[in-house]
Specification:
This is DEAD/DEAH box helicase. With 747 residues, this protein is of the alpha/beta class. Helices cover 48% and strands 10% of the residues. It has 34 helices and 17 strands. Strand 3, helix 5 and strand 4 form a beta-alpha-beta unit. The longest helix has 18 residues.
Length: 747
């Protein structure tokens, strides 16, 4: 194992130990340059390098040296999905000697806290868990500061670290303004001249007058030997239709001999909707589609299948571009424009960067970009011509600036001095220019910042989020302000301050007994912008909405589908047939709505005249799981008993021809299940009946049901099955049970 001679001996030992833990024999050019530039020396550092050039080893070496010097490190990644992988990688060399943690106690007790950017920002603001006592933070995938989803949290995290004097090491793929970013962070800058480890061959495809879908199919057909393929699409409908068209060619037929239809049916616990039938047929031909509206367990399954080579072509929306590491050889950018506007160069680079990533054995990757303007596309995006955009501040936007001030005031940074000092650590301050468009000269930066801070404070005061103190220079949050910040810090739901204010006023001013579950769902879908893609519903659904005074638009339809069909635990195919809404996306939409409703508890609790309804927690659970009121304790306490299996169990108990099921007590499924257990009077036989007769319930689930019946208990509130279903919930799904022979069980 050899290292450059100009690396100090102590640093060389640290680096060698990291290399040995990961099985590396030598350093790459980028790594040698970074260590020569002194990234292990005290101070802030920004390392910019192409994919595959070893930035992670540099970050781990910095982490290890900080630990050896008695320091504590926050290793920050963009998403929760990446936390476990990074924690495990660090434990390869430090797990025996150091506490490397990612749980809630990490900031307080770990030597290395592996967490997300947003958790760090919140911990600094709230001064919880010892985050302010960290010595170094590592910012992984710093280039995600470009995007509007994670970018604001990254910018605020850096500001928080700088305010507290915590050293920063940021590593990034190529960005457009590295010098400016380094100046902002007061960081030494290393920009590696080393090219991408695996070349990507970029090709423009002139669509001309052709249908885009046909052009996608034709591109893949011509380059069939360059798979696996990842096709990026702008919109969900295009993602699905293009996947279906590629599958219809039969180009990838035979990629797998698995029964995808059966596996998919098991994933969704019921009959397949039209959309999922299309997905299953496509997968039989080696093609799948992927977007955020599919159930999470389905998208995770598709990603695993693609990784394992069971799927040869994946059509996806661009949400998969971040953190997706899989054996892609060719990327097809089907939509280089969003409507009339070209996508960002940084986005294009992120997308094609999914091709030929290190570790998959490719000597070259390929990127095909479809366009009506080939010359413009090549000049704007291709490597020899492209210029990456500057990373811009995310608080130029009034809404985000208001949120920042409110978050600061709510967490105790409530004086003009503290607020101004924090904002001056943001990229915003560095990019606040004194000369504007056409040479117009502005006030000084301090004057402009003070004016904006005053205007923002006035807006927050006028709208009831904060108040200004009378006896000293400072602010305090109102009940509404506290509720808004607690909501924001406890959900990933995107919400405007105006939407939160509207929900607060609704829950504050509405008589408690007049707040219903359907009303809560309707208010949540509208204010927080959750909806199914539905313009119309069935006559049955629209009649129910009219009866409740709810508009039959996409928000009202979503609320009605969730409340009267999904929460009635109808099979998704039945939901689709009865509501005329594509039910493939109900579960993912319901999960987001459930998370948002759960977070509204902080708004409700903050409102002086409001209180959470008795059914609030049950509503959160039912919206997420899609079950009846009486089924909640079973699906929450019996491992493996989801909405499909509990439905099959309920229907079996109410229609079985076994003598033990005759004369069961009226009432809830729990009461009947207990009665059934007592009638059989043999625990082993009870378990055998369940696993032998009820679809979806195998040995493990049957054992879990038995254990809960024997040792569990159900709250009194679930002993009544009364519910505001208000529609006929008769289920038309496939049979709940297999044929029963009474002789098999001797009863």
């Amino acid at each position: 194992m050899t290292l450059p001679n100009d690396i100090p001996d102590d640093d060389a030992t640290t680096v060698k130990e990291i290399m040995a833990a990961h099985g590396y024999d030598s350093l790459k050019e980028t790594q040698q340059l970074a260590f020569r530039d002194g990234i292990l020396d005290p101070g802030n550092h920004l390392l910019v390098a192409e994919t595959g050039n070893g930035k992670t080893l540099c970050a781990e070496a910095i982490t290890k040296k900080a630990l050896e010097n008695g320091g504590r490190v926050g290793y920050l990644v963009p998403s929760r999905q990446l936390v476990r992988d990074k924690r495990d990688s660090l434990r390869e060399w430090g797990g025996d000697e150091y506490q490397i943690k990612s749980d809630r106690t990490a900031y307080r007790s770990a030597d290395v806290a592996v967490k997300t950017f947003d958790s760090f920002y919140q911990a600094i603001l709230r001064n919880t868990g010892g985050a302010r006592n960290l010595d170094v933070i590592v910012l992984d995938d710093f280039h995600e500061i470009y995007g509007t989803f994670r970018g604001p949290e990254i910018e605020k995290s850096i500001a928080a670290a700088q305010y507290e004097g915590i050293e920063i090491f940021a590593m990034s793929a190529t960005v457009g303004n590295p010098e400016e970013l380094a100046d902002w962070m007061d960081a030494d800058l290393t920009v590696s001249p080393e090219g991408r480890q695996i070349e990507i061959d970029e090709t423009v495809v002139d669509v001309g007058n052709n249908e885009k879908k046909e052009a996608v199919v034709d591109t893949i057909r011509k380059h069939r030997n360059k798979g696996p393929f990842l096709v990026f699409n702008y919109a969900k409908p295009w993602t699905e239709s293009r996947a279906e068209a590629i599958a219809d060619t039969g180009l990838f037929r035979g990629a797998s001999d698995r029964n995808f239809r059966s596996e998919l049916q098991n994933k969704i616990d019921g009959r397949l909707t039209d959309t999922l039938e299309t997905l299953a047929r496509s997968m039989e031909n080696g093609v799948a589609f992927h977007h955020a509206d599919l159930p999470t367990n389905v998208t995770n399954w598709i990603e695993d299948l693609y990784y394992d080579g069971e799927i040869e072509c994946l059509c996806a929306t661009t949400t998969i571009a971040y953190g997706f590491d899989s054996p892609v050889q060719t990327v097809v950018v089907a939509d280089i424009q969003r409507g009339p506007n070209y996508v960002g160069v940084w986005e294009y680079v992120q997308w094609i960067g999914r091709a030929a990533r290190p570790g998959y054995g490719y000597e070259k990757g390929y990127a095909f970009t479809l366009t009506d303007e080939p010359g413009e596309t090549v000049g704007r995006y291709f490597e020899e011509h492209r210029e990456l955009e500057r990373v811009r501040t995310h608080i130029e936007n009034d809404e985000r600036f208001r949120w920042l001030m409110l978050e600061l005031v709510a967490t105790g940074w409530d004086t003009p001095h503290e607020i101004e000092a924090f904002v001056k650590e943001m990229l915003y301050w560095d990019q606040l220019k004194q000369v504007g468009a056409w040479g117009r000269e502005h006030e000084s930066r301090d004057e402009r910042l003070n004016r904006r801070l005053r205007m923002t404070a006035d807006w927050l005061i006028e709208n009831g989020f904060i108040s200004e103190l009378d006896t000293e220079r400072g602010f305090q949050t109102t009940a509404l302000g506290d509720g808004a910040v607690d909501f924001a810090f406890n959900t990933f739901a995107s919400a405007t301050l105006s939407a939160i204010k509207s929900f607060y006023e609704w829950t504050e001013e509405t008589e408690h007994d007049d707040i219903t579950q359907i009303g809560t769902l309707n208010k949540t879908t509208r204010l927080f912008n959750h909806s199914l893609s539905a313009r119309n519903g069935s006559d049955e659904l629209e009649a129910k909405l009219e009866e409740h005074g709810i508009a039959a638009d996409k928000f009202g339809i979503t609320a009605g589908v969730i409340r009267w069909y999904w929460m009635a635990n109808l099979d998704t195919r039945d939901i689709e047939e009865r509501t005329e809404v594509d039910a493939a996306y109900v579960s993912s939409t319901a999960r987001r709505i459930s998370q948002t409703i759960d977070a509204t508890q902080y708004i409700i609790d903050a409102a002086p005249n409001a209180r959470r309804p008795d059914w609030f927690d049950t509503l959160v659970a039912r919206v997420e799981r899609g079950v009846r009121h009486e089924e909640v304790p079973l699906v929450e306490n019996v491992r493996g008993l989801g909405r499909y299996r509990v439905r099959m169990l309920r229907e079996y108990l109410r229609s079985s021809d076994l003598p033990a099921a005759q004369g069961l007590p009226e009432g809830t499924v729990w009461r009947q299940l207990k009665g059934f257990y007592n009638e059989i009077d043999d625990p082993d036989q009870f378990e055998e009946v369940l696993r032998g007769n009820i679809n979806g319930i195998g040995p493990a689930t049957a054992g879990n049901v038995r254990s809960f019946v024997e040792h569990g208990s159900v709250s009194d509130r679930y002993h009544e099955s009364a519910d505001e279903l208000e529609v006929n919930s008769e289920n038309h799904s496939t049979s709940h049970s297999r044929a029963t022979s009474l002789d098999d069980f001797g009863i």
